[in-house]
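Ticket #4471: structure export looks truncated?
Reporter: QA, pipeline team
Priority: medium

Steps to reproduce: submit the single chain below to the structure queue and open the exported record.
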Amino acid sequence: MTVPSVNDELLENFLIDGWEALGSYDQATLNLADCFQEDNLKDLRVVSHRIKGTAALYGYQQISQLAEMVERILTNTIPEEAQGDVAQFLEQVGVCIHSALEHLARDGREPNLGLELAHMGGTELLSSLLKRYPEAFLRPPDEDEQTATDHEH
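Actual output as written to the record:
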């Protein structure tokens, strides 16, 4: 009988949490596609933040960075005319995260998510959104930066 290594146990724990979070992400994406309103945006921001943090904690930087991008996009105002493209991009991210979890379960390695996203047209869609709505990708200031800006005025 083989005793699982610490790395095997960590991977198993990450996969359990990852699949659960992806289920929440998929549901939130469906809700957002039905109705692009603040409650649905908040749900998706929260689950994206969870995925970002958990993936970073376990060392899966590509998953973490992809989730961070979603969180950043959803933190800013999304113009009505961009909502369809944003919803499509969010679905593509969900497919990429699903693929990443499958790769991790099978091989124990994170796949090249940027390449997968590009094959789906996600990088082209993201580039188009960035050109049309650059303000939607700004990182909001953290509390220290906001306090310093407030004192300057």
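Status: closed, not a bug. The export was complete when the record was re-opened. Leaving a note from the reviewer for reference: The chain is about 75% helix and 0% strand.
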